[in-house]
Write a structure and sequence with these properties.
The structure holds two protein chains of two kinds. By secondary structure, chain A is mostly helical. Chain A contains 17 helices and no strands. The chains are: A mainly alpha, B alpha/beta. Chains A and B meet through helix 2, helix 12 and helix 13 of A and helix 2, helix 3 and helix 4 of B.
């Protein structure tokens, strides 16, 4: 373990990483956990592999050895502003592949961190970012815009151009989250248990609305709707990608300092409060952070399921529940998972593209079951 | 250096759990709160430590009303071992004990790294650091949380008193660990001037370790004073409804026995 990591982490983590570094010992009941440095290194390597795979695979295959050259060409042309001179493979890489990769990284990292935050706040490993209503709210708003908006206000799409859907979806996600939050905090003392139930109820209502809208939709509208329900990185345009990356980066910066408070919350709200945690503020920050990240992601990619649930779970299985490791490692793993699923989505049924949201669940589910079996289910929780 | 409670009262949905109660607790003393089930012992403890807010009345710690203490600085001088200590995720014992140092994260002690191991050793859970909290027995878990609250107030604050609130700390422990735990709390009170307040069920433990007992019945304080004077066969008969008598151990300590 490196010297820098030693100074970064407090005594408790140092001691445990020194002896627990992934060894299959545990005859004395010790936890078999990967140390923090190894966990972060492993997830980083996985993300790099996923980036290379994602960059090279697809309808237009690029060779991995060409990637450094492509990046160099791109930088050079960006400096000289001579885009037209770029070779075809460089144009594919910069205009199609790279924005898609970045969107995948942002989506995976954001969803996974939001999942870890929600699981921490709800003290429940089954919580996922959708629980606060942000993804169903975004999908409902998008569906409303597609099906009803065009009929009631024909100028709307033109007025806002291609941003109409993105903005309405984002606004919808935030609005539904706000409703869930306000409902659960209406009564003094009511806390996360109430939020969980309010979230479930509001999700059901949003699901019903979505069902009704898809019943009313024309065939053409139905196809657009499907995008929201199944998720895709296909809509990656540079402008949207930059915005989503920025918002997810902000969310990560806001989320990481919450790690120790989330650890304390593991003891329950009353106990955390006795330790000096401002539980209410922690909940607000976590919910807002998750909502912004997931809202922005869902607005551009549609609903990508399972990543937010599974990435923190996998990290907890191998590295334990300490949020100081869990949050960054989940971000790295989530990004890798989305990139791998997207690479599969683009290549499995070439030239057609499978829906990403289907693949994340299709690949994630069995992988998760295998992992549970391999670890004997010991880290359930 | 005292905790003063005035006219303390607690009611929920019109039902009064604690009738108006006034008094003060001194740092450096062990105060035991005793009484039958449902007498309001935990309620009184929760009001005193600030984990619940009184319907009426105030609690002041070192002259400052509890509710006006900043969260963090209160947590650096007052630790509470609750009855329910469920941990949501399977943290290692080391991580759980280290949570006690959470309030000190912004201004760590100059010997911060030693505190968690020392608290673990003091609470008798040294060597368990790498085990998962979910994999421990109830008694082991109780001692881990005892280590956590010890770590929380391991060092005296720059000024003012230090307090340890224990809600039925011995409920999950075997005989030996019960006396060990209360002896340690006793030592902290005598040796370091920490104010200890504990809800206990075993009256003999109260007799042996407490400087003072508060006897609660139906939300009223029916007796208050040194345990040897307060815990009489007459009181046991009226409060617990048991037929009790006193004996003296070979060491000269008073013991209560009952049928």
């Amino acid at each position: 373990m490196s010297a820098s990591a030693r100074t970064r982490l407090p005594a408790g983590v140092q001691a445990s990483t020194a002896t627990e570094s992934g060894a299959k010992s545990g005859t004395d009941g010790s936890l078999q956990r990967l140390g923090s440095t190894r966990t972060l290194a492993l997830t980083t390597v996985l993300l790099l592999v996923a980036l290379v795979l994602g960059a090279t695979q697809g309808a237009y295959a690029l060779s991995a050895s060409r990637l450094p050259g492509l990046v160099w060409d791109g930088l050079a042309s960006a400096l000289t502003a001579a885009q037209a001179d770029l070779p075809v493979d460089a144009q594919v890489f910069f205009n199609i592949r790279l924005p898609r990769l970045l969107l995948g990284v942002a989506a995976g990292a954001g969803l996974a961190v939001a999942g870890a935050l929600m699981q921490g706040i709800f003290r429940n490993p089954l919580a996922d970012p959708g629980l606060i209503g942000v993804s169903s709210g975004a999908a409902l708003a998008a569906a409303l815009t597609i099906v009803v908006g065009a009929a009631w206000w024909p100028d709307l799409p033109r007025a806002l151009g291609s941003w109409t859907l993105v903005l309405s979806a984002f606004a919808g996600g935030m609005a539904v989250t706000a409703v869930v939050y306000v409902l659960s905090h209406a009564e003094a003392g009511a806390r996360v248990g109430m939020m969980l139930l309010a979230g479930i109820a509001i999700n059901a209502v949003a699901g019903a609305g979505l069902g009704l809208l898809s019943y009313l939709a024309t065939d053409e509208q139905l196809r657009s709707l499907q995008f929201w329900l199944l998720g895709s990185l296909g809509g990656a345009r540079w402008s949207a990608v930059v915005l989503v990356c920025g918002l997810v980066a902000v969310a990560l910066v806001l989320a990481l300092p919450l790690a120790r408070s989330l650890n304390a919350l593991s003891l329950g709200e009353a106990q955390a409060s006795l330790l000096g945690v401002d539980v209410r503020r922690l909940q607000q920050r976590a919910v807002l952070t998750a909502a912004v990240a997931v809202g922005a992601i869902t607005a551009t990619t549609g609903i990508i399921g399972f990543v937010g649930l599974i990435a923190p779970h996998v990290v907890r299985l191998v590295a334990g529940p300490d949020h100081r490791v869990l949050l960054p490692a989940s971000a790295l793993l989530g990004a890798a998972l989305v990139l791998l699923a997207d690479a599969a989505a683009r290549t499995l049924a070439q030239p057609a593209e499978l829906p990403l949201g289907v693949l994340t669940a299709l690949l994630g589910g069995p992988f998760f079951l295998l992992l549970l079996r391999a670890t004997g289910g010991r880290a359930w929780r | 250096m005292a905790l003063i409670y005035q006219n303390l009262q607690f009611a929920v949905r019109g039902r009064t759990l604690l009738h108006p109660l006034s008094g003060q607790l001194l740092a450096g003393q062990v105060t035991a709160i005793v009484g039958p089930n449902g007498a309001g012992k935990s309620t009184l403890l929760n009001l005193m430590c600030g984990s619940q807010t009184a319907t009426q009345g105030t609690v002041a710690l070192d002259g400052q009303v509890l509710s006006t203490w900043p969260h963090g600085s209160l947590a650096r001088r007052r630790a509470v071992l609750a009855q329910d200590n469920a941990v949501a995720f399977n943290h290692s014992v080391q991580e759980v004990v280290a949570l006690g140092r959470y309030p000190h994260r912004l201004c760590p002690s100059w010997r911060e790294d030693d505190i968690v191991p020392q608290a673990m050793a003091y609470a008798g859970v040294a060597g368990m650091g790498h085990r998962g909290i979910h994999h421990l027995s109830g008694g082991e878990r109780a001692r881990v949380h005892f280590a956590r609250v010890l770590a929380q107030v391991w060092e005296a604050p720059e000024q003012g008193s230090r307090w340890l609130f224990l809600d039925e700390p011995t409920a999950a422990l075997d005989l030996r660990h019960q006396t060990d735990l209360l002896q340690r709390a006793r030592d902290w009170a005598t040796g370091q001037g920490v104010g200890v307040v504990a809800v206990v069920h075993d009256l003999n433990l109260a007799l042996r370790y407490a400087d003072r007992v508060l006897v609660l019945q139906h939300g009223h304080c029916v007796a208050d004073g040194p345990p040897a004077r307060v815990l009489t066969p007459g009181l046991l008969a009226s409060v617990w409804g048991v037929d009790a008598w006193r004996t003296t151990t070979p060491a000269g300590d008073i013991r209560l026995q009952w049928v």
